[in-house]
C-alpha cells in the first residue's frame, strides 16, 4: 500500500502535494460543507463535539486549528471555550473565505481568525498555543511526521493535541459496506455536486492509505508527544488521536 504522502489529488500533475491539495480545496470550497454533511449523514458534528470536549477540559486560551478549512472545528471550539481565541490556518484561501463568512454570521469575528500557511512550516513562535487541533487534515500533509513536529513545536508544555481523522473500519460486516460507499457512491456524488471530478476519488484513496491506530500514535510519540491515546467512533469510520506536550 502506498504512503498517503505519495497519493496526490491529481495524478497527472507534477507539482508537489501541498500545491495540489490547495488547488483541490480551492475548487471544492463552495460545495465542501454540503458534501461533508451529506457524506457523513451529519455525524461529523458528533465527532467534532468529542474532540472539542477533550480540548475544552484543558481550558486553553490560545488554540491553533491546523487545516482549518471552512472553520467548523474552530467555531465549535470558540463556542465551547468562551475565554479562548482560535487561530485557523490553511493552504486554501477559498476555504477560509467561506469560513470567514460563517464566522461573521455567527458573531465570532473577534474570537476566530484565519490566515494562510503551511502545516509543515507554521508561521508561529515556539510554545505559542495551549492546544492544537486538526480535523480530517493529517492525511493531506505532504510529510506527516514533519507536520506533527511543527505542531509539537508551537505547543506550550502541557498543551494538548487533538487530531480527528477518517479511518477504515476493520469489522467484517461494516468494512464491505464502507468500501462500497466510499469507493463508489462518494465519488459519484462528488462528480454531481462538485466542480472537481477528482477530489472525491482522492478522498477514499487517502483515507485507505493514511497510517491509522497505533501507527499514528507511534508517529505522534516520535514527534515528542506523550500520553498518546485514541478513541474510535461510528464503527471505526473516524478516530480521535490525543497527545500531550
Q: What share of the residues lie within helices?
A: 40-55%
Oligomer: single chain
Percent of residues in beta strands: 15-25%
Secondary-structure element order, N to C: HHEHEHEEHEHHHEE
Shape: globular
Mean pLDDT: 90
| Total beta strand runs | 7
Evaluate the radius of gyration.
17 Å
- Biggest β-sheet: strands ordered side by side in the sheet: 3-2-1-4-5-7-6
Taking the sheet with the most strands, its summary is:
7 strands, mixed
* Uncertain ranges: none
The helix/strand class is: alpha/beta
What's the helix count? 8
What is the rounded distance between the termini? Answer: 31 Å
Structure write-up:
The chain is α/β, with parallel strands linked by helices. Helix content is 45%, strand content 20%. The protein is built from 8 helices and 7 strands. It has helices spanning 17-40, 44-56, 72-80, 93-106, 144-154, 174-193, 199-209, 214-222; strands at 62-66, 85-90, 112-116, 129-135, 155-166, 226-233, 238-244. A 7-stranded mixed sheet has the order 3-2-1-4-5-7-6, with helices on both faces. Helix 1 (17-40) crosses helix 4. It is globular, with a radius of gyration of 17 Å. The two termini are 31 Å apart. The model has no long low-confidence stretch (mean pLDDT 90).
Amino acid at each position: 500500500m502506498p504512503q498517503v504522502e505519495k497519493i496526490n489529488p491529481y495524478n497527472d500533475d507534477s507539482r508537489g502535494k501541498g500545491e495540489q491539495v490547495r488547488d483541490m480545496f480551492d475548487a471544492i470550497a463552495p460545495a465542501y460543507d454540503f458534501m461533508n454533511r451529506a457524506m457523513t449523514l451529519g455525524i461529523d458534528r458528533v465527532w467534532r463535539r468529542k474532540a472539542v470536549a477533550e480540548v475544552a477540559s484543558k481550558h486553553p486560551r490560545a488554540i491553533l486549528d491546523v487545516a482549518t478549512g471552512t472553520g467548523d472545528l474552530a467555531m465549535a471550539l470558540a463556542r465551547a471555550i468562551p475565554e479562548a481565541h482560535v487561530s485557523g490556518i490553511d493552504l486554501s484561501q477559498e476555504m477560509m473565505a467561506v469560513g470567514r463568512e460563517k464566522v461573521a454570521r455567527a458573531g465570532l469575528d473577534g474570537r476566530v481568525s484565519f490566515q494562510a500557511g503551511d502545516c509543515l512550516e507554521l508561521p508561529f513562535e515556539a510554545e505559542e498555543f495551549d492546544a492544537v487541533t486538526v480535523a480530517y487534515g493529517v492525511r493531506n500533509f505532504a510529510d506527516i511526521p514533519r507536520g506533527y513536529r511543527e505542531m509539537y513545536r508551537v505547543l506550550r508544555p502541557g498543551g494538548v493535541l487533538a487530531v480527528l481523522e477518517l479511518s477504515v473500519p476493520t469489522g467484517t460486516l461494516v468494512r464491505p459496506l464502507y468500501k462500497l460507499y466510499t469507493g463508489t457512491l462518494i465519488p459519484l456524488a462528488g462528480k454531481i455536486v462538485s466542480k472537481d471530478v477528482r477530489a472525491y476519488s482522492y478522498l477514499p484513496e487517502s483515507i485507505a492509505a493514511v497510517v491509522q491506530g497505533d501507527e499514528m500514535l507511534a508517529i505522534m510519540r516520535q514527534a515528542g508527544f506523550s500520553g498518546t491515546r485514541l478513541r474510535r467512533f461510528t464503527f471505526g469510520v473516524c478516530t480521535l488521536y490525543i497527545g500531550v506536550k
